[in-house]
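Input record, target 12 of the design panel.
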């Protein structure tokens, strides 16, 4: 397969195609011929997924650096280059995005009944924005894609969301935009300081990475700006308060995309930019301890708050705070196992939590309520729904044999050597996760069927089973045979650990240069 892909020059055009196909498809969906917007979006996202699949075979697992690189001068007078590439850290986030989007489109078929064309056009533009974030190798280009992603999601929540959609959309926008502006200031500062020192003004990531030490005493402030932007997006405790509102009010596809992809932009930002650019700050005792403590608080807090939620969708939203806390712990433990585990949790969270949000939306379409108390023993009425919800919940808990187990095991294994106390406390989060999810499915599926309106709920349709099937297959595949993923992430994860830990660095204090 790799030979065939090489023969058609796949490596030279694939990333450009992944960015341009959704944009062109969005234009067709919005103003094209009189065809269904949802059908156009489904065809385009399926084409996008097929094109991206070649990355799996063409990717060289032994290469730690960027592959499939493309670089074009964009704004030469400003030092802006359209430079994109993929390594073992970003590969699976690209594939997760291209897998999720056709499912999000198909999952919206019966939910979206007004302004159909703009909705699907926005989903396609959002696809390009998200992929651009994961492949950008120029900080200006990265920031452009980061902001492009914000606009479609704002409208998806604000127009097609629930009763409090405008409040949720505005809160999401303000939180993300404030963090983004601070990151932009940091990017421009690095650009100017490095440019003044080297004589070359460029936003190229590698150029800035090689010369970041010239920024000297600015390190702590620059890291702080990047940290805030990424921490809001993760979201880390206590920057998480926008998330439950956005998840609950967003349409089902919006919730799936938020959980499955957008939250990963924060953790990806830490892996790709914050840690490599500012290792002396990130690994200084004060900063490292603070971030690890916040990560562990997020794990426990998210699980405990999820446990008392009466709304099933909000329960799933708070579970994301807990799951992403494990990712942050794995990143800051900074061992090969913990970083690989963090990457695997990012993938698995997108799969399992995405499936939970799909299931939440499917039952909401039938009963028009998300209140856990409104259901009861519906397993007798909707056995397929009950079986899939139980299975996905067990994968989210981390049952051995499912995808959730692999990532959490690697994070805990890799973190224990460098952060033993935090790892022990974080382990209790797995127990709390079992408590809130098992208790929820008991109340939804296995309690007495005592409400007449639940007695005639239709079971999952063929379309809904098609939406869920790829996610269920991934849950089993990754849980049973994660080796292909670990093999493709190992070289890049090890290179990151070596780069950040690198030569001995002094803690950054005002006035002290990084070396």
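The sequence produced for target 12 reads:
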């Amino acid at each position: 397969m790799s030979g065939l892909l090489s023969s058609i020059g796949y490596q030279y055009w694939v990333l450009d195609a992944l960015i341009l196909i959704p944009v062109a498809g969005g234009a067709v969906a919005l103003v094209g011929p009189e065809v269904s917007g949802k059908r156009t979006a489904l065809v385009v996202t399926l084409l996008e997924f097929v094109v991206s699949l070649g990355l799996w075979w063409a990717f060289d697992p032994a290469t730690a650096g960027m592959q499939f690189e493309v670089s074009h001068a964009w704004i030469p007078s400003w030092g802006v280059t359209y430079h994109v590439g993929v390594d073992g850290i970003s590969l699976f986030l690209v594939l997760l995005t291209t897998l999720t989007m056709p499912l999000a489109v198909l999952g919206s078929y019966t939910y979206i009944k007004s302004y159909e064309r703009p909705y699907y056009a926005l989903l396609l533009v959002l696809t390009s924005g998200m992929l651009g974030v994961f492949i950008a190798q120029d900080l200006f280009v990265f920031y452009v894609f980061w902001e492009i992603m914000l606009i479609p999601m704002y409208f998806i929540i604000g127009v097609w969301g629930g009763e409090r959609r405008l409040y949720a959309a505005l809160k999401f926008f303000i939180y993300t935009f404030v963090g983004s502006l601070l990151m932009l200031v940091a990017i421009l500062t690095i650009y100017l300081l490095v440019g003044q020192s080297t004589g070359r003004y460029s936003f190229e990531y590698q150029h800035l990475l090689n010369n970041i030490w010239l920024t000297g005493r600015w390190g702590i402030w620059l890291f702080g700006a990047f940290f805030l932007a990424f921490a809001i997006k993760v979201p880390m405790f206590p920057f998480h308060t926008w998330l439950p509102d956005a998840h609950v009010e967003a349409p089902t596809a919006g919730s799936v995309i938020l959980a499955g992809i957008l939250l990963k932009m924060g953790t990806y930002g830490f892996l790709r930019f914050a840690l490599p650019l500012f290792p002396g700050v990130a690994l200084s005792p004060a900063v490292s301890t603070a971030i690890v403590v916040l990560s562990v608080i997020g794990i426990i807090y998210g699980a405990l708050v999820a446990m008392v939620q009466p709304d099933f969708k909000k329960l799933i939203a708070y579970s994301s705070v807990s799951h992403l806390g494990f990712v942050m712990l794995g990143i800051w433990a900074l061992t090969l196992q913990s970083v690989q585990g963090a990457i695997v949790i990012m993938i698995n969270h997108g799969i399992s939590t995405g499936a939970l949000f799909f299931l939440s939306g499917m039952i909401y379409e039938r009963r028009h309520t998300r209140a856990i108390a409104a259901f009861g023993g519906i397993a007798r009425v909707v056995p397929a729904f009950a079986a899939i919800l139980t299975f996905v919940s067990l994968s989210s808990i981390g049952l051995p044999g499912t995808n959730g187990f692999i990532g959490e095991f690697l994070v805990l294994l890799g973190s224990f050597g460098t952060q033993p106390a935090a790892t022990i406390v974080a382990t209790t989060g797995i127990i709390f996760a079992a408590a809130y999810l098992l208790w929820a499915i008991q109340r939804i599926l296995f309690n007495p069927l005592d409400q007449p309106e639940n007695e005639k709920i239709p079971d999952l349709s063929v379309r809904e089973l098609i939406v869920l099937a790829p996610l269920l297959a991934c849950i089993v595949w990754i849980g049973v045979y994660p080796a292909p993923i670990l093999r493709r992430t190992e070289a890049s994860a090890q290179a990151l650990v070596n780069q950040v830990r690198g030569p001995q660095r002094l803690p950054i204090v005002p006035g002290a240069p990084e070396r």
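The radius of gyration is 22 Å.
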